[in-house]
Design a protein that fits this description.
Elements lengths: L2 H6 L1 E4 L3 E4 H19 L3 E2 L3 H14 L23 H9 L2 H11 L12 H12 L3 E2 L4 H10 L15 H9 L8
Antiparallel strand pairs: 1-2, 3-4
């Protein structure tokens, strides 16, 4: 199926509403993902139309694939490490239970319905992809993580990412000569 036919294909939304897939994606982004992330202290960096286009592209390119086979490496706002403290905090704030509640309401149409083949894979893909679409600078949780790491405004974060907090505090306080006992 080509791109336009796929976007215009009718999908059943919430058992009672048959709508074009493009409308379902728009609803998911505008009334679902953006407010959901905002309610957890994150700001989506990209405009709604661009976010919808990126989600649609990911869904289209990866239909019929398991999550571990899918490729969503496009449209990143900036290079994002998946093992950095900011991502760990993001996964803590919006944990599996929060995403489950989100998908219980928003996962009612074919592409993301957990009851249908590959639906759970697309849910997971979108959850992970949204990390790449937020503004770290504008999101409330960036300041929280910076405070936890002891980073002052304007400091280079990269030097803190691999530093052991315990060792850092010991060295700064000069306890035990900066060494562990």
């Amino acid at each position: 199926m080509n791109w336009e036919d796929w976007l215009n294909e009718t999908v059943t939304w919430d058992l009672y509403d048959d709508i074009p897939r493009r409308t379902a994606i728009y609803r998911l982004c505008k009334m679902g993902l953006i407010p959901f992330l905002a309610s957890h202290g994150y700001v989506v960096e990209v405009p709604l139309k661009l976010l919808g286009s990126r989600i649609a592209t990911g869904l289209y390119m990866n239909r019929g694939r398991r999550s571990y086979e899918s490729n969503w490496e496009f449209g990143y706002q900036e290079a994002r490490k998946v093992d950095c403290p900011y991502k760990v905090h993001y996964d803590h704030v919006i944990d599996t239970e929060e995403w489950h509640k989100f998908w219980k309401f928003w996962g009612t149409w074919h592409d993301v319905d957990a009851e249908l083949m590959y639906g759970i894979d697309r849910q997971y893909d979108i959850q992970e992809y949204m990390w790449t679409q937020i503004s770290q600078d504008k999101s409330h949780h960036t300041r929280i993580v910076d405070e936890l790491l002891g980073i002052e405004d304007g400091e280079d974060v990269s030097e803190y990412e691999n530093r052991d907090t315990y060792l850092k505090e010991s060295a700064e306080s000069n306890e035990w000569g900066g060494r562990r006992k």
